[in-house]
Amino acid sequence: MGRSPCCEKVGLKKGTWTAEEDQKLLSYIERHGHGSWRALPAKAGLQRCGKSCRLRWINYLRPDIKRGKFSLEEERTIIQLHALLGNRWSAIASHLPKRTDNEIKNHWNTNLKKRLTKMGIDPSTHKPMTSALGSGQHKDAANLGHMAQWESARLEAESRIVRESKLLSTSTTPYHSHLGPPAQVTVLNKVTDVPLVQPLKSMVSPCLDILKAWQETWTTTKSIPTTNAFFSTSNGSLQFPTSTLHFSDNLFTMSQAPGLICDDLPFNSTNNYEARVANNLKYFGKPIDDDQPEIGARMEYSKLMDSKMQLINHDNDIQYDPNIDQDNLRPPNFVVADDGYNLVDNHNPTGLYQDLDCSLLGGDLEDNKIYWVKVLNVETSALDSPFSKRGI
DNA sequence: AAGGGAACCAACCGCGGCTCC
DNA sequence: CGGAGCCGCGGTTGGTTCCCT
């Protein structure tokens, strides 16, 4: 029982699709929609398994598919999203209209990955391959890098939740008039396909695991002298693709909102979740509406999430139009440095490739450099900018 | 022109998660 | 609660095309 038999076992056709098969599938879906993929082949008169039909439709026959060479902007988006999301091709594809996950995956594996490797950049960590970490630590770093990527994806989903629910709220009634949680709507997130609106508590709590992991690894690596490695620990901070974590003597914080309910923060004595958020926001100096602390907390949370969203999306949504004065469209820095918050380099918001060592580029170094500076959207000056050593 | 290797890409495979019963 | 069925995802394969010698 369990798994259904594969195509071969039930004598169905495999391999390349013929034009006739394509036509059958196309016309059936145009008339009836795909419905159940498993039932579709028989109804459409195809000697194929449902899986094969689904794949053929999604990757080839769907009308809204763009084929052909990837543009510079698309490549840049793929690289930056891969740094954030890892090999989550469907999530990456959701940010590239008309491109399929399979196509992006192929392009990455056959092209971008090799080019990055050739440049001395580890395509899995998006950092220069020269690392002072030992192999074990490097493995830990890689694992945490992936965890960070998942965290980033999750944050993105959360910010979308907040933004969309806020939009929905403001379209009907003023936001502050809500006494309870934002209206429950079923909007699917592009990345996770999970319902977007959830109670804040359930949205935020999973971040604690990664924070703990970060803390543990940092504690381990802090005692070991490192130079320009995956972790920049020279001044007590940690860097990962989208955030900088900061440690003070007694406080472990994260620059984005999830840290606001970290158990290490003060004001966690109450069981009232919203009040905890509000109090912790106050702790960070964020103004809260004293009359309505829960609503204020939610609004601040939304703002923080929106900022996060801008960081993730601004390259994607704004910068690529060459006819637009991009400097005027860049989002404001998330928060200023030196107070436990992130300092964001607007020219390279992810902080990736900031330590790119051009000496690692072999062969036609200048051409490579020019190309990748364009692809990565890293200003030439940023290669040795103060941000490259920030770890603030 | 021919052969061999590299590159590309469509398609397959197996796993995990979700839903339904 | 657990098993069955289905879908979607990501890794991998294998056929085709391209390029170099």
From TrEMBL:
A Pfam family of this chain: Myb_DNA-binding
Chief site of localization: nucleus
Alphabetically ordered keywords of this record: DNA-binding, Nucleus, Repeat, Transcription, Transcription regulation
InterPro entries in the cross-refs: Homeodomain-like_sf, Myb_dom, Myb_TF_plants, SANT/Myb
GO biological processes: regulation of primary metabolic process; response to other organism
Record-annotated Myb-like domain positions: 9-61, 62-112
GO MF annotations, alphabetized: transcription cis-regulatory region binding
CC annotations in GO: nucleus
Residue span, HTH myb-type domain: 9-61, 62-116
Gene3D superfamilies per record: Homeodomain-like (1.10.10.60)
SUPFAM superfamilies for this protein: Homeodomain-like
Subcellular location: Nucleus
PANTHER family tied to this protein: MYB FAMILY TRANSCRIPTION FACTOR (PTHR10641), MYB TRANSCRIPTION FACTOR MIXTA-LIKE PROTEIN (PTHR10641:SF1347)
Name listed for the protein in its UniProt record: Uncharacterized protein
Organism annotation: Cinchona calisaya
Lineage of producing organism: Eukaryota, Viridiplantae, Streptophyta, Embryophyta, Tracheophyta
